[in-house]
Amino acid sequence: MRYLTFMLAGACFSLNALALTPGNEPIQPIEPVEVADPAKVELGKQLFFDPRLSRSGFISCNSCHNLSMGGSDNLTSSIGHNWQQGPINSPTVLNSSMNLAQFWDGRAADLKEQAAGPIANPGEMAFTHDLALDVLRSIPQYQQAFDRVYGKPQITLDEVTDAIAAFEETLVTPGSRFDLWLKGDAKALNDTELAGYRLFKEVGCTACHDGQAVGGNSFQKMGLVMPYATLNPTEGVAGLTGNDADRMKFKVPTLRNVELTYPYFHDGAYWELEEAVDVMARLQLGRELDKVQVEQITAFLKTLTGEQPSFALPILPPSTKATPRPKPFD
Amino acid sequence: MRYLTFMLAGACFSLNALALTPGNEPIQPIEPVEVADPAKVELGKQLFFDPRLSRSGFISCNSCHNLSMGGSDNLTSSIGHNWQQGPINSPTVLNSSMNLAQFWDGRAADLKEQAAGPIANPGEMAFTHDLALDVLRSIPQYQQAFDRVYGKPQITLDEVTDAIAAFEETLVTPGSRFDLWLKGDAKALNDTELAGYRLFKEVGCTACHDGQAVGGNSFQKMGLVMPYATLNPTEGVAGLTGNDADRMKFKVPTLRNVELTYPYFHDGAYWELEEAVDVMARLQLGRELDKVQVEQITAFLKTLTGEQPSFALPILPPSTKATPRPKPFD
Questions:
Q1: Rounded to a whole number, what is the distance in Å from the CA of B57 to chain A's nearest CA?
Q2: What cofactors are annotated for this protein (chains A, B) (predicted)?
Q3: B79-80 and B249-251: which strand pairing?
Q4: CATH class of B2-30+174-302
Q5: pLDDT tops 70 at residue B194
């Protein structure tokens, strides 16, 4: 009987919808996050939005991981201090706690380790950790908030990155239409979207794009079957290991909210989801998809857009006489 | 009896507190805003936060009028497209609806006229109005929102700036301690703050800094009694009129939330409120204030910090295939 249903499914869309059931799928729904320490999350949110963690006083975490825009900047590569062009596309911060490691090459083990990077990167926020700490220590409201959360006399980098990571861990996006379907709402997806999901599994996308985040849990070579043509010189994991086998190996990005996180791939070279689907199928799976198939998979991918984190814009405490001043132009 | 109270007031702080009563003051409290058209305000909020109104896709209204930071950027002068240094200090957007005109030189009659300026200014957002409209028209959710609010077939610049202005009109800051005092809460201010307020009136600050916004309702020459020394070449109203009498004439800024809107003056040359008070007294009023007097006025000024606008960070609708792409680096 199961076999028969499957056979019929090949011929008829409305039967397909019946044939697909959410049990035992390679993708799991995202659950709403439970906030263990609201004071820490609130502090982390302020830090995430505070441009005083940059040399210029102009760039915050939210500049390149904009929570109004899917946790990304929707640019090919990011704009850093003094309008420097970044080397790589800014990955979304949404659901990033589900990644096996952080950055495209996985060079940070977790969100806490990641958070320290851009602050001191001369091409990004171009500050120093010491100066960032001087800024925070000079502001009584920050000092009090750190005291409340960590109970130690002096703010440390470890605490700063811990608070930012705690905020970022709340940035999950449950409630997508696909998750509603996974949880048993058969009407949450239409026939095209279901056909796209079936294809997504059938052609092998779920080999890498699986789990809660629909990705983020392995490193893979970009251009497995056919090489990826790009002008971007980034070498991926090989940049860390020096190992030739790691050339063009990158962390598989999450496909959650992929509709919002254009342009695509580590080089941000593709702006349209249809193009990205086509490229992936050819280069990673050796499959030529036709137009209808690409549209079906694209339709499925758009059902992965979840509820965006909703919170009041944080109000930042003012600087004091002791606060190091921003230096945007020198 | 009134005269006697005044005489006593000079000698005794606790009697001063009794002597000052909120009636008939040169400053009026800010009232909470009543939103007439929530859909328009919500649309304007999205536009205010949308960096796609800039050529780079990186700079939004909120970049330089940051609502986490008193509606300003807390920089000497702002950072524009390609990291250009702006010519003047970014004025706060908070309570800006109370200004008699917009920009330091008043060249825009109102917020609606102002909003069009930075979008097309090559040193700021460096876009064109036509391209900004192309962006918005290419995004169905924006098109629907404009349809709902304005009921016309095509989005216009007039509608864009009208919606942004409607949002900005909600950015008022009632509930400051000074306003509580004005409304009859005698304990809202301490003796130092009240002494500062009395001095503020006595030395003549309220000649220009009065009304609901404690400023914003006249143009005055910067350096009335003694010239203002600055490296900033901006000429104020004379830049518009060519009239020598208008040299260094600027709109008097609001002092509401002045604790949050450092650095001060059109050239952003002074970072500390105490310095700004001292400079103003000497240059505008020909008065040398002693340290205690400066501290008292500063203490009063800090009571003008009101409730900051609180709202959920807007979520922006994604671009489509038809959306002109950002050009940060060409």
A1: 7
A2: heme
A3: unpaired
A4: mainly alpha
A5: yes
Q: Do A260 and B328 touch (CB under 8 A)?
A: no
Nearest-by-Cβ selection for B316 from A56, A69, A262: A69
Contact present, B250 and B219 (Cβ < 8 Å): yes
Contact A49, A314 (CB under 8 A): yes
Q: Which CATH superfamily is domain A38-169 in?
A: Cytochrome c-like domain (1.10.760.10)
Q: What angle do CA A186, A188, A194 make, to 5 degrees?
A: 75
Contact of B218 with chain A, judged by CB distance below 8 Å, is answered with no
- A64 among annotated binding-site residues: yes
State yes or no: cis peptide before A263, omega within 30 of 0: yes
Computed over every residue of chain B, the mean pLDDT equals 94
The mean pLDDT value for A124-151 works out to 98
Tell me if the domain spanning A2-30+175-304 has CATH number 1.10.760.10: yes
Catalytically annotated residue among A25, A34, A42, A124: A124
Q: Which two tokens stand for residue A210?
A: 């699986």
Residue A10, pLDDT above cutoff 70: no
Model pLDDT for residues A248-283, shown as the tens digit of each residue: 999 999 999 999 999 999 999 999 999 999 999 999
Q: What pLDDT was estimated at residue B11?
A: 38
Amino acid in position A299: A
Q: What's the pLDDT at B174?
A: 98
A2-30+175-304 against A38-169: fold identical:
yes
Residue A291 CB partners (closer than 8 Å, separation 6+): none
Report the chain A residue with the minimal C-alpha distance to residue B63.
A58
| pLDDT value for B21 | 59
Chain A touched by B104 (CB under 8 Å): no
- Asked if B306 and B174 touch (Cβ cutoff 8 Å), the reply is yes
- What residues 274-303 of chain A have any CB closer than 8 A to a CB of chain B? none
pLDDT of residue A4: 38
Which residue does chain A place closest to B307, by CA atoms?
Answer: A315
CA distance B2 to chain A (A): 40
Q: At residue B54, does pLDDT exceed 70?
A: yes
Q: How does residue B153 score in pLDDT terms, banded at 50, 70 and 90?
A: confident
Of A58, A75, A318, the CB nearest to B75: A58
What is the pLDDT averaged over residues A97-108? 97
Q: Write down the domain spans for chain A.
A: 2-30+175-304, 38-169
Provide the annotated active-site residues of B: 124
Tell me which residue in B66, B312, B326 faces A310 most closely, judged by beta carbons.
B312
C-alpha to C-alpha distance for A266 and B33, rounded to whole angstroms: 46
d(CA B167, CA B18): 40
> Could you tell me which of B217, B225, B199, B293 has the C-alpha nearest to residue B255?
B217
Tell me the pLDDT of chain A averaged across its residues: 94
Binding-site residue set of B for heme c: 61, 64-65, 81, 205, 208-209, 280
Give the nearest chain B residue to A258 (CA atoms).
Answer: B318
